[in-house]
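Sanity check. The docking grid for magnesium ion depends on where the pocket ends up, so I'm generating a full predicted complex first rather than guessing from homology. Inputs follow.
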Amino acid sequence: MADIIQLLPDHVANQIAAGEVVQRPASVVKELLENAIDAGANTIKLIIKDAGKTLIQVIDNGKGMSVTDARLSFERHATSKIKSADDLFQLNTKGFRGEALASIAAIAHVELKTKQDQDEVGTAITIEGSKITAQDVTVSPKGTSVAVKNLFFNIPARRNFLKSNTVELRHVLDEFHRVALAHPTLHFSLYNNGSETFNLPVSNYRQRIVNIFGVKTNEKLVPVDEDTEVLKISGFVGKPEFAKKTRGEQYFFVNNRFIKSAYLNHAILSAFEGLLKTGTHPSYFLNLEVDPQTIDINIHPTKTEIKFDDEHTLYAILRSATKHSLGQFNIAPVLDFERDATLDTPYTQQQKTSEMPKIEVDRSFNPFEADSGTSSKAVSSTPKHTKTYNKPSTEHWESLYVGLESKGTRSTKPATDFSALTFESEEHTGALFEEKDAIETSSTTYQLHNKYVISAIKSGMLVIDQHRAHQRILYEDFLRDITVKEGVSQQLLFPLELHFSPQELEIVKQLQEDLEHTGFVFSKYTEASLEITGVPVMVPESEISIILEQLVSDVQNEVPDANFSATDLLAKSMAKSLAIKTGQSLQKDEQEHIVNKLFACKEPNVSPTHKPTFITVGTEELDRKFI
Ligand code: ADP
Ligand code: MG
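Predicted complex below; grid placement will be based on this.
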């Protein structure tokens, strides 16, 4: 019988390779962005149309290619990045397999334009299904532009297999985010169907995360830093209370390359043990630096899975570092029995023996000697530093237990002494009421640490989180205004012009009707700005842009699902922006306003984001503590 084995023609081999490397538009995005980074670019622009199905273009200002290299770059196994197999374990580049451009060119229409800095003119090459159809000299700036059109034009089965534009766009954005997160020192931008969706300036890592995921991410991040001989960790984990139902924001980068690792993910989960609600996933953005010799990146065509020489050690270090960070930021109990205690002891202290702490006792102290009349002064002026101990007058602290109705009746002194316990500064950061007619009110509320409003109730006391409570109050107000369409508007003296990206403007337009029901009045739109002539009565002019920006970012970050309601989101977002903040000192009347309005709400016990707004401490509970 005749021999039957033959070598496959190149274009068939390339198509087969493409099956591994290019699964969807997002795979092309990844390869092109990585090539741009390897070329030393510091500004990289990604342009896509129809979620990448029609066009994916990456423009960089990197080193470009010579005429010969431009042609060679489309050959299979053509790479400038490694020369021998040994180089595989010294990788400092993203690419090394030399098959991305060849694979992409096998299944799409590709237009390459490239120019090196020292050259007068550049090279333009058009290639369709592995066949070069044109090669010209071109005038172009330094760098490279690769446009990939009509992906899978010659493989209808693969093209039909692509998901909806929404799904494919999600994958493209994921890839873009991964690359942008791994390289905060490079400027990235993304244009989707003609409008700029992301513009990420050069920044530090934290800013890059915030620029991608929105301003509200900032307060959720806890830094993780650990430097050991085998592994250097830097980055952030999300606070447990912000853990999400979806597994969105989980990123490991090893030597600046995004990787997936179920094993390392487990290390993080175990560090979060006991801190997460069931069914929620913590976010993390962690950079791991290891010696390139100790990893193998070449185990998967898309290079997202890698093999570590010593996974167990990495697991232990990662877990311990994360636990330590959560503990340091008072998020988890600091006690970790598995942690090596010498790691926590400053080096300078390690050789020293510890000294017994000394306790000084005032032997002349007699609790019955003191004059009870001075006690309230001692408490109010210098509570922490009082050397002599004055027996407190029972008269005063008994009044703490007096119910609302019996104020002042059991005690001869008015219960206003209560206010003497306010030890935070009285400085005002903002006002809850426009005009304050200093109502002399009963002293059944006081503010603790500019954060909680404490109020006496019959059964004990009420501790209200001022920020969350006010959010609840405003949220219900806004919801009502929007639904009954009767928000009151105040006219601005001068129209206010606000600037947005086209995509953001689109979001504002969608919400315009609801916004108008709260009291906003929009006069005109241009391509990148809008003009406002009226705002809801309670919104100070200085806050307008912050509120709308927050709103846009909230809408962008919200994963729309069946329960998604623009009205609800708008009310929540505005309530969050306008609610009095933690740290803001409140006047007596403001404190009472919070208490009264909160309990007039339909759902007083939770904030709009379902966090508790208050707790109660029963008198009996307090009594028990004094036994
Ligand atoms: P790899 O990145 O694995 O080397 P590719 O097929 O992605 O393989 O690219 C082939 C070669 O083409 C690269 O090694 C590089 O020399 C060159 N190249 C590709 N993209 C660019 C770019 N944007 N700028 C400069 N050179 C590039
Ligand atoms: Mg490459």
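Relevant for the grid: The pocket of magnesium ion (ligand 2) is lined by residues 31, 34-35, 95, 100 (CB under 6 Å).
Also worth noting: Residues 332-348, 370-442 have pLDDT under 50 and may be disordered.
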